Every structure is written in C-alpha cells, then in structure tokens.
Amino acid sequence: MKRNIPEKENKNEMTYIQQHLANERTYLAWIRTAIAIMGVGFLVTNLHFTMREAISGIEDFIARMIGLFSVILGIVTIVFSTVNYYQKRDQINQAIFKSPKITVFILSALMTIVMIIFFAYFLSI
C-alpha cells in the first residue's frame, strides 16, 4: 500500500536522508537504554527476593523501589525519546536544530535517583 506523501515533505525527507537515518539510530539507542534500565531493575529485585533468606523490611522496600523506579524510568525514557524523535524529524525537515536540553536533564536526574537508590540498597546489605 503506497502512502500519499506531499511532494514538499518527500523532497525534504530525501534531501536530509542521512540526518533522518541518524535520528532513527539515536531513537533506537534510547529504546535499548530504556530496556536495559528496566532489566537492571528487574534483576536487582529478582535477585533480592530469591537469594536472601533473612530479609529486613527496609531492604524489601528499597528493592521494590529499585524495581519500580527502574520501570518508571524506562517508560519515561521511551516516551521522551519518542517525542524527541518526532521533534527532530520535523526540525530536520525545516533545516533547524535545537538540542534536547530539558529531556537530557530530566532523564539524567531520574537516572541519578535510581543510582542513589541502588547505592542505598547495597549499603543496607
């Protein structure tokens, strides 16, 4: 099924094909990162509850928070990367560029929170 693409949009897409392909690679890298973040959260939570015989309340809470925050951070990363992908796509077609300062800051801050929780967890063991 052939999609009807306006001539102007098609011309811009072809003019900046390398930039569009780079944008797609960046998007896929963000998706892989989100999956890895969620995977680490599941791993820590699963290891905590299967490897420990004597579990304290605070350790359980921290392990659950690691899992929860990792999943939330992974979902937020997917949402932000998808929005960023479409913004970049439009910016490439309009021949303008704006760096994603807010997205990078928010994701970095959230990842720092997860790392602090990891650190607290490993200190409590």
Automatic annotation (TrEMBL):
Spell out where the chain crosses the membrane. Answer: 27-49, 61-83, 104-123
Which superkingdom does the taxonomy of this entry point to?
Bacteria
State where it is primarily located.
Answer: membrane
Any Pfam family from its record, for instance, is: DUF202
Q: Which UniProt keywords apply?
A: Cell membrane, Membrane, Transmembrane, Transmembrane helix
Keyword Cell membrane among UniProt keywords: yes
InterPro entries given in the database record: DUF202 (IPR003807), IM_YidH-like (IPR052053)
Could you tell me what this protein is called?
A: DUF202 domain-containing protein
Query: Species name for this entry?
Result: Exobacillus caeni
